[in-house]
Amino acid sequence: MLPIDRHAWLRTLLHLGLVLGGGLLVGLALDQVWPALTLTALSLLAWHYWRLHRLLQRLATRQRLKPQGTGVWSRLDALLYRGQLEMRARKRRLLAMLRAYRAVATALPDAVVLVDRNSQRILWFNEAATPLLGLRYPRDHGRPVTDALQPLPMASWLAAGRHAEPLEDVASPVDPSLRLSLRLLPYSDELWLLLARDVSKLLRLEHMRRDFVANVSHELRTPLTVIHGYLELLDGDDHPEWGPLLSEMRRQSQRMSRLVEDLLTLSRLEARDQLPEEEVAMASLLATLRREADALSNGRHRIRVEDEAQVDLRGASKELHSAFGNLVSNAVRYTPDGGEIVIRFSRLPDGGAVLAVHDTGYGIPAAHLPRLTERFYRVSTSRSRETGGTGLGLAIVKHVLGLHGARLQISSEVGVGSIFSCVFTADRVLPRQAHSTEAAAP
Ligand code: ADP
């Protein structure tokens, strides 16, 4: 008990004693002790009930009165008053914080929409949601988000919930020239946060970059072909002193042609959202890969093809051939003479399929693996150039696989070798047709 509480109790007991003593004295004076004492006790009880009633009323009406007096009732008043003041201060602080958060969300250049997860209705949105998504107060407050954001493909997207992939490039419902990137953040069990960002400028820049690279590559193609043609015509035997010079010039012009072709291939892939889909006869594709590997290796490696999957793939033949060809070419180029290369096509337990190129080559230090598919990223620039690499092969592979909903897995150990695996999902796997099996026969 606090000393102040003890003091209040003492005051109250003193007060009780004085009142009862007063009653006793009056009783003695009137020679009516018991009636006088009973009357005093009843008055005391009535007074306490009255204080209790006042307290209840104050609590019910949330009245704030400065406490007066020193008894236990006044002490209770004082404690209540303090609690009320603290509560008010806390409420003010919370309100200030809430206003600050709202101000931040309102000032954001991105549209922020708060959606109730169960009813999928809009609970709140910031100012940017008006120019970007066309939402308006009070019309859209409480509306189902799928209605309010039509024609955006919200229904299927929201159905994916926590696993919804961001929609990277969708037209705004207000202005189709505005391109938006949409993200869904399920930040609690009841609420979803929908974020929309204007990416028109970014996409325009990306288009400009893509067009620029494509145009430059295209423009370089013709002069390079001409130079290449003339260099082929020049005979080193006519001018023996030019021999080494001519062969170096031929080598470099071939390298430039390969670079331009790879850049054009990448630009073409980047410009597409989808590739034509056909049945890719894997037996004949594996046979072609083997022939190409043999030609490139020229007997320097042992090369094996293991067709364990006995299925075909649904996709774009030309592009898949280019991707697998790049992996095979890398395996030959980065494996020293006498090494072994295995091209294995196998099934996965989930129904998918994997085309893996194993080699017993130089291997790649783990630190390089995450960046290997970046354009012009090379572990060893000199080794890549010596073997005629452009630094774009794996970037092309990644793009082709991405357009097939497939992924590239790389595992490697320095001095032991590498495995580059193209992993296809079950929906890309088709039963093998009889004619494609025949094509595989040697
Ligand atoms: P490049 O034309 O230089 O081969 P790629 O994009 O095909 O370009 O490959 C990028 C880099 O990855 C290569 O420069 C090489 O360092 C490394 N690399 C690719 N495949 C292999 C492999 N099978 N073994 C070892 N290193 C490899």
Parts with pLDDT < 50 across at least 5 consecutive residues: 438-442
Q: In percent terms, what proportion of residues is strand?
A: 15-25%
Work out the helicity level: 40-55%
CATH architecture of the largest domain: 2-Layer Sandwich
Average pLDDT score: 90
Keywords: ATP-binding, Cell membrane, Kinase, Membrane, Nucleotide-binding, Phosphate transport, Phosphoprotein, Transferase, Transmembrane, Transmembrane helix, Transport, Two-component regulatory system
EC number: 2.7.13.3
GO molecular function: ATP binding; phosphoprotein phosphatase activity; phosphorelay sensor kinase activity
Domain PAS: 97-151
Structure characterization notes:
The protein is an alpha+beta fold and 442 residues long. It folds into 4 domains: 3-96, no CATH class; 108-198, PAS domain (Beta-Lactamase, 2-Layer Sandwich); 202-270, Helix Hairpins; 278-440, Heat Shock Protein 90, CATH 3.30.565.10. It has 13 helices and 13 strands. It has helices at 3-30, 33-61, 72-107, 129-133, 145-148, 154-160, 200-233, 243-270, 282-297, 317-333, 381-386, 393-403, 434-440; strands at residues 111-116, 122-125, 167-171, 179-185, 191-198, 278-280, 302-307, 311-315, 340-347, 353-359, 407-413, 417-424, 429-431. The strands form 3 sheets. The protein has a 5-stranded antiparallel beta sheet with strand order 2-1-5-4-3. The protein starts with a helix and ends with a helix. Residues 438-442 have low confidence and may be disordered. The chain binds adenosine-5'-diphosphate. Adenosine-5'-diphosphate is lined by residues 326, 330-331, 334, 359, 361-362, 364, 372, 377-380, 384, 389-395, 418. The site of adenosine-5'-diphosphate has 22 residues, from helix 10 and helix 12. Keywords: ATP-binding, Cell membrane, Kinase, Membrane, Nucleotide-binding, Phosphate transport, Phosphoprotein, Transferase, Transmembrane, Transmembrane helix, Transport, Two-component regulatory system. It is an enzyme of class 2 (transferase).
